[in-house]
Write a structure and sequence with these properties.
With 371 residues, the chain is an alpha+beta fold. Among the domains are: 10-59 and 146-239, Probable tRNA modification gtpase trme, domain 1 (Gyrase A, domain 2); 287-371, Aminomethyltransferase beta-barrel domains (Elongation Factor Tu (Ef-tu), domain 3, Beta Barrel). It has helices at 15-20, 40-49, 69-76, 123-133, 157-162, 209-219, 230-239, 275-284, and strands at 10-11, 24-28, 31-36, 52-55, 60-65, 88-95, 101-110, 113-118, 139-142, 147-153, 165-166, 177-182, 185-190, 199-205, 226-228, 288-295, 306-309, 312-323, 328-336, 345-350, 353-360. The protein has a 7-stranded mixed sheet with strand order 11-12-13-14-10-4-15, with helices on both faces. A 6-stranded antiparallel beta barrel has the order 16-19-18-17-20-21. The longest helix has 11 residues, at 123-133. The chain is globular, with a radius of gyration of 21 Å.
Length: 371
Amino acid sequence: MTTHTDTTAKPTPLLARHEALGARIAPFAGYLMPIQYSSIIAEHRAVRNSVGIFDLSHMGEFEVQGPGTLEFLERMTTNDVGSLQFFQAQYTLMLNDDGGIVDDLLIYNLPGRALLVVNAANLDKDFAWLQKHCPPGVKLTNRSDETALIAIQGPMAEAVMKRMAEFDLASIKYYHAAEGKVMGKNVVFSRTGYTGEDGFEIYLPNDMALDCWDAAMAAGKEFGILPIGLGARDTLRLEMKFALYGNDIDDTTNPIDAGLGWVVKPDKPIEFIGRKHVLAAKQGGSKRKLVAFTLNEKAIPRHGCDIQVNGAVAGVVTSGTHSPSLDKGIGMGYVATEHSKIGGTIGIVIRGNAVPATIIRPPFVQNTSHK
């Protein structure tokens, strides 16, 4: 186990379990988080082939209540919140006044309230942005410090959850949630995740976290469940071309450039912040595009590597790794739109050499288990 000397980073309620499992611990987004336990490849393959468990308690959770909640969230986010049924979840974006992405997040429509789940690194910024625009009559509460989040992901995730939850899990569709008994207590859980596999994310009070983790580990033992660190979480999400805030998107990124136009609904009844800039990108055409690529030779692309077209620098890699599923280098990055054609060849500059790569249609891994 790596010792952690950062005295400002906060522990999650599960830090003792990670330490006992010999995890490599490091500060991440203000929290002490497990980076890996055994190996990134072993953890990655456990999720793709069977099941893994994640501590995601660093994520931010905000509760929104009051008669103006729908109108407030419609203004603050790009997707159509009004289309959500009870216990339905939605992936969406918050934009700034210039159309840049403040954050990407989930919204849950729950009886009497909405639950927003935001990136840990943006927690304070997001809450301040929402507070700034929050109208009278809407109550915004930061529940992050009192909420633990455990994810169970993989083809056998439902089999593990069945041993923990008193609920008809098969009735929960992808991107839907439920409120029911897990470990004998009522909590919110959802069929969502950041891996591309079937899975559940469980929101629970801090004092339930250790028992829930232990129960999941016991329930998944026969399936070879492994604890999964942030290293494998990154390779899993990249194989699906899921954007990582701070790498692939940030407050200077127009959603259209990032290929996120599908979560932008400019025609919804209430105008969202940044709408005119998104419309301009849609109507005028994006000048750059986030592309996915695979390397044609053995090498590993990394964040910050230059992308070349015809020998000239044409962009930069925003995310890159070795794909455990494909056994090759994969990544994504922004290039000028004219160089973004599927099947096109680009060069990824690694240690001074331009390694040839092919632009592909994402995701990198097909036929995953999510329902």
